[in-house]
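Lab notebook page, bench 4
Experiment: in silico fold of construct C2
Operator: M.H.
Input chain length: 330 residues
Purpose: comparison with the prior construct
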Amino acid sequence: MKQFKITENDANQRLDKFLKKLLPLATRGLLYKLNRTNKIKVNTKREDNEYKLQTWDEVKIFLLDDDFDKLSKEIEKRPVSFSETGLRSLLDKKDIVFEDSFLLVVNKPSWINVHPGDHKTKETNLISQVQDYLWDKLNSLTFKPSLAHRIDRDTSGIVIIAKKKDILTRLVEDFKNHKNIRKYYMALVSGSLDKKEWIIDKKLERIENAKNENKVQISENGLKAITHYKVLEELKFQNEIFSLLEVEIKTGRMHQIRVHLTYIWHPVIWDKTYGNKSLNHYLQKELWINRQFLHASRIEFTHYWTWKKITLEARLKDDMKNVFEKIKKI
């Protein structure tokens, strides 16, 4: 017999869904049969598959150890850490912006996916590193710390990870409905902007299965998208002028900032998809820029345990700071 105590992160889900996560190799038909034949009990009695688990319930599974192992993953095995494999973790301790028992906020490096499988690559990803970092603090059978939102692979900056399921649900809802959340980015764009502060409200349409064209385009058939920018500083390098912007997005569309800024003829520096390719080539040669100059710098949100508003900032990455230093030396 295997016995599992339900914690707050495993509670409030149906018994059959919990069992499917615990025994992922078992068919639903088999799970229903096990329950029907009294091989699954909650506390001291059989419950329907629709039963909502409560904190401190005890789920008992009457299977031989070998049978249980065949139907389950190695849920108690610690993942191999990056240090153990000789690889340097891309998530450095200095990139931890905020952490408590409910949330982890990190300053994501560029050139790393937030999820496994993004961009059809098997390389390491942010959420895997987070779960490795938090392994000793995990106490849930079916819930793992999860991203409340995401940012592009080439974009650095703030990402929020929820350690508790109920807080994750609230934050995901806030991001989806664009409420109780304010997101700010730093962007370096080409040229001098006539309007030092402005709102771009052009609709964006995502082009499915795009290969040789931009994935997102301005279109009246698209979804509402609102981007507010403010010029912070103008910089000059040789014969080129750049503008450093603070950008707040009121909606969360794919590639929103990059497409909107390109629409007003001031693309993000070294944006390979929507930017100025000849300028990008020149800047790569002169300033060693090799990724889009976009950084999720600040976020304001509600902490759903303390119910307080929190404002967090993420420092610029070294590659961005180096560009500024080079430009200002000229």
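Observations: DSSP finds eight helices and 15 strands in the chain. Confidence is low (pLDDT under 50) at residues 75-88.
Next step: discuss at group meeting.
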